[in-house]
Design goal:
The chain is an alpha/beta fold. The chain has one domain: 3-Layer(aba) Sandwich (Rossmann fold), CATH 3.40.50.300. The chain contains 10 helices and 11 strands. It has helices at 10-14, 29-33, 61-74, 91-95, 138-150, 170-178, 193-208, 239-247, 259-267, 279-296; strands spanning 46-53, 79-83, 103-105, 108-110, 112-115, 118-122, 157-163, 182-189, 213-224, 231-232, 251-257. The strands form 2 sheets. Strands 1, 2, 5, 6, 7, 8, 9, 10 and 11 form a 9-stranded mixed beta sheet that branches. The protein has a two-stranded antiparallel ribbon with strand order 3-4. α7 (193-208) links the parallel β8 and β9 (213-224). It is globular and about 55 Å long. The termini are far apart. 43% of the residues are buried.
Length: 297
């Protein structure tokens, strides 16, 4: 058995200079100066990059990303929405733009413009049809992410909202390494233990990269009955707030499970633009307003 040098950390001893796959490479001075180090930050003119991620799938991460991007654009900010869930790109469907294709403008890829203030890039725009799967290993996904950042005509952005796949894999690590002006990450979870267990891993992942956790959003926090309007704790309640208190990070609020939210996604009309008296709309609006205040200070 080899005796450990007490003056070295485990990372020092086990480092193989494979920086592109290392979770701590973004904060490692050795990696930045080494020949095998990280690629340079992408040249994107953006004030704030916000990562939206979750520990597991099916918690409403893409719903949060779409509504956040729309809320920001409604405040007069120029917003880009980058769909990096390459194996399940749902953002175009949720915005009603799934039939669009990407075009070249000079030497740059032109994003799909939803409004004058909101532009979108997604792998879905490059597929021949909605049933075509992406069967890629990590390096191909990393190359595509770099292209989506550097070869797209984003223009001058106030915000770039990045919708990530579940977990703490290649996509999340790559965007953390390449993004300029990374303001932080939003963690989306549902209340039950099986979801919060994985959400904790996402928090620790972001903290390990020394990126600010902007806050926790608890989605599907109770269900609004479509018949009587009463709220049922279908998946429990309070799990997201418990994580926030445990890690001493902001709790951005709760959003109930509502059939109208599901309809909004299927119909391609973000729920945030359906202004009304719905308590769910008030919850969504409050969460987005709180997040904007956290980022804008």
């Amino acid at each position: 058995m080899t005796k450990k040098d007490p003056g070295k950390t485990t990372t020092d001893e086990e480092c193989k200079s494979e920086c592109s796959s290392c979770a701590t490479a973004t904060t490692c001075s050795s990696a930045k100066g080494a020949p095998a180090g990280l690629p340079p930050k992408a040249n994107v003119d953006v004030r704030h990059v916000i990562m939206v991620l979750s520990g597991k799938g099916g918690v409403g991460k893409s719903t949060v990303s779409v509504n956040l991007a729309y809320a920001l654009s409604n405040h007069g900010f120029k917003v880009g929405l980058l769909d990096l869930d390459m194996h399940g790109p749902n953002i175009p469907k949720m915005l009603g733009i799934e039939d669009h294709k990407l075009a070249m403008m000079g030497e740059k890829i032109e994003p799909v413009h939803v409004t004058g203030m909101l532009s979108v890039i997604s792998m879905a725009f490059l597929l021949p049809d909605t049933n075509t799967p992406i069967i890629w290993r990590g390096p191909m996904k990393m190359a595509a992410i770099q292209q989506f950042l550097t070869e797209v005509n984003w223009g001058n952005l106030d915000y770039l909202v990045v919708d990530l796949p579940p977990g703490t894999g290649d996509e999340a690590l790559t965007i953390a390494q390449l993004s300029p002006n990374l303001s932080g990450a939003v963690i989306v979870t549902t209340p039950q233990d099986v979801a919060t267990l994985d959400a904790r891993k996402s928090v620790k992942f972001i903290q390990k990269l020394e990126i600010p956790v902007l806050g926790i959003i608890e989605n599907m926090s109770g269900m609004v009955c479509p018949h009587c309007g009463e709220e049922i704790d279908l998946f429990g309640k309070g799990g997201g707030k418990k994580i926030a208190e445990e890690f001493n990070i902001p709790f951005l609020g709760s959003i109930p499970l509502d059939i109208e939210m599901r309809k909004a996604g299927d119909e391609g009309r973000p729920f945030i633009i359906r202004r009304g008296e719905s308590p769910t709309w008030a919850s969504v609006d409050k969460v987005m307003e709180t997040l904007i205040k956290v980022v804008e200070g």
